[in-house]
Amino acid sequence: MEHVVNAQLRSVVGKKRAVRRLRAQGVIPAIAYGPGVEKPLNLTLKKADFMKLFKEVSESTPLTLVVNDESGKEVLKHMAFIKMVQYDKVTDEVKHIDFYIPEAHHKMKINVPVHFIGKAIGVEKGGILEVVHHEVVVEALPDRIPEVIEIDVANLGLGESIRVKDVKLPEGVKIDMEPEDVLVTVVVPRGLEVEETTATTESVEPEVLKKGKKEEEE
Q: Domains in the chain, start-ordered, CATH in brackets?
């Protein structure tokens, strides 16, 4: 599904009062920059349209940014990503958007959310699933950036972890983190660990006694 962001070039830059007036008119100030454009572009977005789109996308979702000048003429149409969102400290409303415009044939790095699916075996045995990283830094060509990375934790036992090196990725996609970095683990509660140790000891003792008895008979 293509996500299109319509924007207009903004002539008002750096003037707080003017920018506040724009926001009062239902407009969000924005900027677009990156290797895909010669210079940063100051933009405005219709708040109602953007907020509807914003609910459906994330930082790793490829967007089609369409920019028109004040006369309505299209001056840019390019793939883009949401780089940063500024919120009002009091109202929590979106105040400003940064778009990153990559160069088509050059790799880029971007944060991609991680979704953990399934119920770990270790959790069913009383362990606690601890997510260490909810997102990872991915390096790939712009058109290969995954919107989300899914990791199945169903086979994860007590005390076991999934590390960066364990994740299967699409061709041309790399996680830019240390291979040994832990993404998710099943923590063993202290009480559960003691119970397991006791149970193991009890199951071994009869074998030792039986063996000793056999040696006496011989």
A: 4-103 (2.40.240.10), 109-187 (2.170.120.20)
